[in-house]
Amino acid sequence: MTIQFNCPYCDALIAFPDRHAGKHARCLTCGQLFIIPSSDGEKPQKIEPKIQKAEPVPGFYRAVLVDSWRLLVGPQNSTSLGFVIAAVCFKFFLGTGICCMNYISFVVVWGWLLGFYLNIIYETAYDIDNLPEIYLGTSITFIWYVIKPLAVFLFTMVVVQLPFIIALAILQSPDLAAEDSWRAEIILQVLFAFGLFLFPAAILTMAVGRDFTLLRPDYVLTPIVRAFRPYLVVAGLLIAAGVLEMQTQQYTGQDVPAGAGHLLLNLAAQVVVIIAMRSIGLFYRHYSCYFAW
């Protein structure tokens, strides 16, 4: 049986199987969190954003390094983890797809995974300690679920790398003296690394604040400076996830042991990514007092 009701914020029509009654969910139109009602037409209870605390909430390191592993073993997360495993396997075995199928599968899988990551950040920030529910939608909405996260991540990366991009345009001038080229290379590497360091705070702003105007330098830098050591943990986890992902390979006809090893590495990378994304949401949950927005 299906329960139909309207979003308590934007009034969009929503439907869920009745077995989900009482669970937390999110409107895919406006992002409002609510509790799924038990009958048709019943108004769902909104989950209001928490009031920012005057002081940091203790327990950040335990929440990141210990409690995060419960996401991987809890039965309530089995469906979400199953979809992640299926998506990774789909991408892995279509690595040598016919014609352009490998590129299409790459875009579709990564678009869906990036949307899943944004939902992890958002729901973790608002005290939901399970993995997000899986929403596939219709054929049209599924395309939107793929394109939007790709655009959000790309836009955020461009914003944090603006100093690097501007410096690259200036320092790549043909008039630059040869003896200054090594200095230019060092400057570019430092600016690029600095942009990557800012990325977790910036993607947190986009996932939770959902407004590109919030990507102001003071909004992004203030929580980093005031909670520098916890932020190092967040940035370190995301860097580790990125490095591990760069070591992965897709299926290219390897023998069974080699292929199984590559597939396991792909899955291990997703474990680290999920924990890294949860750590970003936990950073907001524990240090929301440092976020001006």
What does this structure look like?
By secondary structure, the protein is mainly alpha-helical. It folds into 2 domains: 1-48; 52-290, no CATH class. 58% of the residues lie in helices and 6% in strands. It is built from 9 helices and 5 strands. The chain has helices spanning 60-65, 78-93, 101-125, 139-160, 162-171, 181-209, 217-226, 228-246, 256-287, and strands spanning 2-6, 13-17, 24-26, 33-35, 45-46. Helix 2 packs across helix 9 (256-287). The protein starts with a strand and ends in a 6-residue tail after the last helix.
Q: What key phrases describe this protein's structure?
A:
three-stranded antiparallel sheet; 293 residues; globular; mainly alpha; two-stranded antiparallel sheet; 5 strands
Q: Can you describe this structure in just a few lines?
A:
Helix content is 58%, strand content 6%. It is built from nine helices and five strands, in the order E-E-E-E-E-H-H-H-H-H-H-H-H-H. The longest helix is centred in the C-terminal third of the chain and has 32 residues.
